[in-house]
Design goal:
With about 190 residues, the chain is mostly beta strands. Helices cover about 0% and strands about 50% of the residues. It is built from 1 helix and 15 strands, in the order ββββββββαβββββββ. Strands 4-3-2-1-5 form a 5-stranded antiparallel β-sheet, with no helix packed on it. Strands 8-7-6-9-10 form a 5-stranded antiparallel β-sheet.
Amino acid sequence: MLSMNDLRVGVAITHDNQPYVVLMSDFMRTAMRKPVMRTKLRNLITGRTLELTFKPDDKIAEADLERNKASYLYVQNGEYYFMDQTTYDQFFLNVNQLADQTKYLKEGLEVDVLHYEGKPVTIQIPKKIQYTVVEAPDAVKGDTATNTSKTVKLDNGLEIKAPMFIKQGENILVNTDTGDYSARASE
């Protein structure tokens, strides 16, 4: 069992016999009241979000999730297909189950698949993913002296802000928590 203090972003819990992941948690304490933890949760099966407030004496059940590795294959009609790396079985998850993670997917990407009661319900992508820059405007002389950035397009279609020195064809790392440029990838 978890306490309200254990509710951090990414923690999976069970509420009304459904698995949820914590998207946001905010500890609140007011003058004359007991402290509470306000949370925003996403149902791992339906993708719906829910806001709940937990009190210090609440006991929260941790979701019993199994993890294994899979590779991303392709998307078709809003269904994202993956292949289990141990059994080679293919399965799909819909956009509601994956939420914002879909924009970081690229063919062959290795992900952690979370299973609830034997069925895949969502994935966890790596914190940093390497992409190739396919479009990058040239830097103008003088722009590189300051901390300016430009929009670059990556090999999976994602567009992000990157430093002016990044050129087309370079490999870069993107932080999937923030969606920001992280660093040049080491060759």
